[in-house]
Amino acid sequence: MPRPLVMGNWKLNGTKESVEALLSGILPAAESVKDSADVAVCAPDIFIDQVARKLTDTAIAWGAENNDVHTSGAFTGETSPTMLKEFGCTYVLVGHSERRQYHGETDASCAQKYALLQEHDLIPVLCIGETLEERESGRTNDVIRTQLTPVLEDLGVDTLKKAVIAYEPVWAIGTGKAATKEMAQEVHAFIRQLIAEKSAEVAAGVQILYGGSVKAANAEELFAQADIDGALVGGAALIVEEFSAIIKAAG
């Protein structure tokens, strides 16, 4: 069974003061589970240097929320994997539903970012998930299969040995509506099955996180499911008490 991973996604939030307080607040929880679970935070680019200075030699890894498909050049406003690597990042989110919805990212462009990150020894966290309309029309599995195809078919299943998958039903992100533990487990099992069709070894080892209104109240029951290996946490990752409790539930 993969080692549990709890990761915070701060989205467009934070000040220098709040970042310092948040990291100071969650460090004890992360240290308490360091022998049994991994903890990470993905921050807005502008805070990554502050995060790196605070978290070096601690139990918390860090990363970014996005990256460009280029390593350098005339691409104003973008951040490259080489820059992220220089600031000690381990993880980078790829294809979060908000990037897909508001910035036009596609399965193909996500695969391009994923591949470039791995070329620079960064771990992509590939976000996948269905909308409410897709779930209600019975197309959840079709959506998941389509979103994973560029990685499984074009890049190869072995790339998942150095990647993380985050299943985030779009209808549950920031809405307060979490999937039930049974609903989440069903999709996680399907994801693992898709990977196992290519490689049982890779399927057994890949971390598959659940994201979508994860909080202290539901973390323990989610983590008890056979195919849920942790969480990608949004709003609750900004609250010391909530995120600390989620971390401890994983440990």
UniProtKB/TrEMBL annotation:
Highest taxon above the source species: Bacteria
Keywords: Cytoplasm, Gluconeogenesis, Glycolysis, Isomerase
Compartments it resides in: Cytoplasm
Gene Ontology molecular function: any one: triose-phosphate isomerase activity
Main location: cytoplasm
Cellular component terms (Gene Ontology): cytosol
InterPro entries named in the record: Aldolase_TIM, TIM_sf, TrioseP_Isoase_bac/euk, Triosephosphate_isomerase, Triosephosphate_isomerase_AS
Associated pathway: Carbohydrate metabolism; erythritol degradation; Carbohydrate biosynthesis; gluconeogenesis; Carbohydrate degradation; glycolysis; D-glyceraldehyde 3-phosphate from glycerone phosphate: step 1/1
Keyword Nucleus among record annotations: no
GO terms for biological process, alphabetical: gluconeogenesis; glyceraldehyde-3-phosphate biosynthetic process; glycerol catabolic process; glycolytic process
Xref: CDD domains: TIM
Catalysed conversion reaction: D-glyceraldehyde 3-phosphate = dihydroxyacetone phosphate
Keyword Isomerase: yes
Residue sites binding substrate per the record: 9-11, 174, 213, 234-235
Catalytic site: 96, 168
HAMAP family referenced in this protein's UniProt entry, alphabetically: TIM_B
Family according to the record: Belongs to the triosephosphate isomerase family.
Entry function: Involved in the gluconeogenesis. Catalyzes stereospecifically the conversion of dihydroxyacetone phosphate (DHAP) to D-glyceraldehyde-3-phosphate (G3P).
The protein, known as: Triosephosphate isomerase
Natural source organism: Neiella marina
